[in-house]
Each structure stands twice: as structure tokens, then as C-alpha cells.
Design goal:
The chain is built from 7 helices and 10 strands. With 255 residues, the protein is an alpha/beta fold. A 7-stranded mixed sheet has the order 3-2-1-4-7-6-8, sandwiched between helices. The protein has a 3-stranded mixed sheet with strand order 5-10-9. Helix 1 links the parallel strand 1 and strand 2. The longest helix has 16 residues. The radius of gyration is 17 Å and the shape is globular. The two termini are 13 Å apart.
């Protein structure tokens, strides 16, 4: 089965996740395979609960232990990754997507990528630019010969057999060297894959993580700063909301 997990925390991200989950729920065969994950103890906003009942997606909570005031998003996502992947059945595929994404078409994966992922590999799409750190003085530096294509972590395709990778990502995210600097969980994932797990990376086509504008997005991604979705003057929240509403106003596809 194809499943989807969306991680959210805070009012703005819960509101975005409600819309995101609704767009995914209408584009997968089983809407209840779509889940929104909140840290334990966080109150579920009414709008999220109502959207879940209307569109058929489910709510889950995960244990969250904040180890530092720095890099909250990285800690949040890396701990949620472990919880979501651990719950995935061995024969299921799991898309982990950011709360500022929107699914525009029926979700499917080609057989070659699906089999690689079910065997324990991770599939991610390239970022819009190479953000590898250029200086050997950076604690996350990788030499050019040790780099994979730089990927965006807003959409990850994975399965149960990759749980060990997510445990490693979580552990790295809590190390002092990863509790500062840009890019949050994305920095952790690019470093760990390039450093130690090159053989477990599969390239996901860009349309699965289409950072707009993109000619033919399957999953649109309104990337642009972790934790800043509700910042005054940030247009991402409204443009994401508008696109999700347009998708939800279309006739429901036949899965």
C-alpha cells in the first residue's frame, strides 16, 4: 500500500497540514493511509480534526524529546521520521512530505523505484541548487568526490527496511555540530547519505518534489524556510492554501 505521513507542529503548520493531507487523501487508493503526525502533548487544532473527518486521513502522535533550543525543526522531523517509518508495514511504501506540499495528481511510483525502496533504499528528488558546504572547516563538509546529488528533504519515499537510516538521522540531529547552521534535517540527510550510505540512495524524479515554478508537478512544494510559514509578509502560506483549495474543488479522481 502507498501511505503518506505529514509532520506538523504549531498553529500555522497544523492548518497547512490539514490542507496538504486532504490533497493527498484524494489521490491515494486508501485515504486512511494518509496521516498527520504531531508531537505528543500538542493540542490538535479544530480545523485539522474537521479536515481529517471530512477527507478520511488520520491523526497520530509521536514521542518528542527536545534536546536543545536550537534547530527545533530538525529535531522534530528527525524524531517523527523514526516514529512514522517504524509504524510502516514491510510491504508498504511511505511518502514523508512537508506540511507545505500539495498533491496534484494520483500518486504512484514506478516499479524500479518501488522495489529499491522496499529493499531499504531512500528516494529523494534533487534540490533546486547544490547546497553542499564548500569549506572543509564546516562540520558537515563532504569532499566533492564524496557527494551525492544534493537532495531536498521535503519529500522522502521510504519503507520499513530503511528504519536504521532514520535512527542515524535522528541521532545526528541531536549532536552539537548539527544543532546550528542552515537546512535542518536536510543537512543531516545529505551528510549521512554522502558520508556513509551512498549505495542506499535512489533519485526520485523532480515532479515528486516540485519546488515551484515547475512545468508538471505531481507534488508541489512551497519551500522557503523551516518554521517560517506563518511569518508576516511570507506569501507561502497563502499561495499554498490557494493551490490546495483549487485541487480540492476539482472533481475527485477515480483511484
Amino acid at each position: 500500500m502507498l501511505t503518506v505521513a505529514i509532520i506538523a507542529s504549531g498553529t500555522d503548520y497544523q492548518a497547512a497540514a490539514a490542507l496538504t493531507a486532504a490533497t493527498f487523501a484524494r489521490h491515494v487508493p486508501v485515504p486512511a493511509g494518509v496521516s498527520v503526525w504531531l508531537p505528543e502533548g500538542e493540542f490538535q487544532q479544530d480545523g485539522l480534526a474537521i479536515a481529517g473527518m471530512k477527507h478520511g486521513f488520520v491523526m497520530r502522535h509521536f514521542p518528542f524529546r527536545q534536546v536543545s533550543d536550537q534547530k527545533f525543526t530538525s529535531q522534530l522531523k528527525c524524531q517523527a521520521f523514526v516514529a512514522a517509518v517504524a509504524r510502516t508495514q514491510p510491504d508498504d511504501l511511505l511518502f514523508i512530505v512537508d506540511a507545505d506540499t500539495c498533491c496534484l495528481q494520483p500518486l504512484a511510483v514506478n516499479e524500479a523505484i518501488a522495489q529499491a525502496v522496499l529493499g531499504g533504499k531512500l528516494a529523494l528528488a534533487p534540490d533546486i541548487e547544490d547546497r553542499h558546504f564548500p569549506s572543509p572547516e564546516d562540520p558537515w563538509y563532504l569532499p566533492p568526490e564524496g557527494r551525492l546529488p544534493y537532495v531536498n528533504s521535503g519529500v522522502i519515499l521510504t519503507g520499513r527496511r530503511a528504519l536504521d537510516l532514520f535512527v542515524e538521522f535522528r541521532d545526528l540531529s541531536e549532536q552539537p555540530r548539527f544543532l546550528h547552521g542552515p537546512f535542518n534535517d536536510q543537512k543531516v540527510i545529505n551528510y549521512a547519505l554522502g558520508k556513509s550510505h551512498r549505495h542506499r540512495f535512489v533519485a526520485l524524479p523532480a515532479e515528486y518534489n516540485a519546488i515551484l515554478p515547475h512545468p508538471q508537478p505531481l507534488i508541489a512544494h512551497f519551500a522557503g524556510g523551516a518554521g517560517e510559514l506563518g511569518r508576516p509578509g511570507n506569501s507561502r502560506k497563502e499561495t499554498h492554501r490557494q493551490l490546495c483549495h483549487r485541487v480540492l474543488q476539482r472533481p475527485a479522481p477515480v483511484n
